Amino acid sequence: MPKKQLLEFTDKGIYCSVGKFYIDPWKPVDDAVITHAHADHAYLGHKHYLAHHHSREVLLYRLGEIQLQTVAYGEKVMKNGVAISLFPAGHVIGSAQIRVEYKGEVWVVSGDYKVEDDGVSAPFEPVRCNHFISECTFGMPVYQWKPQADIFKDINSWWRSNVERNLATVIVGYSLGKAQRILQNLDLSIGKVYTHGVIENTSEALRRNGIVLNPTTSITHESVKEDVRKGIILAPPSSVGTPWMRKFGPYSFGYCSGWMAIRGAKRRRAADRGFVLSDHADWTGLVSAIDATGCESVYLTHGYTATFTRYLNEIGFDAHEVHTLYGDDEGINTVPEEEPALQPTVPKGEGLEEAGRDLS
Ligand SMILES: [Zn+2]
Ligand SMILES: [Zn+2]
Question: How far apart (Å, rounded) are the C-alpha atoms in residues 358 and 336?
Answer without folding.
Answer: 6
